[in-house]
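A brief tutorial aside. Many learners find it easier to grasp structure tokens once they have seen a single protein encoded end to end. The record that follows does exactly this for STAS/SEC14 domain-containing protein. Read the sequence first, then the structure, and try to relate runs of similar tokens to stretches of the chain.
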Amino acid sequence: MSQQEELKFGAHHSHFEPPDTLVVVFNGLINMDDVKRTSELYKETFERHGQYYCIANIGGSQIDTAGRRYLSDNGRSEWFHAVIYVGADVVQRTFGKAIALAMLYTGKTSFETVFVANHDEARAWVAQHRASRQRKTG
């Protein structure tokens, strides 16, 4: 996926925002094909750009137990600086935290899992976190 290209899979779409943010919007049911494509997308983004922020708008979506398990088993914590979920309800927050915990067991690094109401809050959180990381390393 080029930096300006938008990828569509099923009812979902994503795009990369340089320097280090993948935005994914999920709509409706996330079936197993969509889950597998999402996992591939996350891995490909890491391979092309290194660690990144993932803003995942899940407010209008649903994923079943098998899909959550697949993401837990196939995602890697070292791919992400953080995963920022937009629009998650209480159930989605619980499952988002469970997926993050499972990835931490399989990965080598930690990452943050954040829940916000909208994309503006997500982008503001990323900007603040990025600045904090830069102050620590520079």
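Self-check: DSSP finds four helices and six strands in the chain. If you spotted this yourself, you are ready for the next section.
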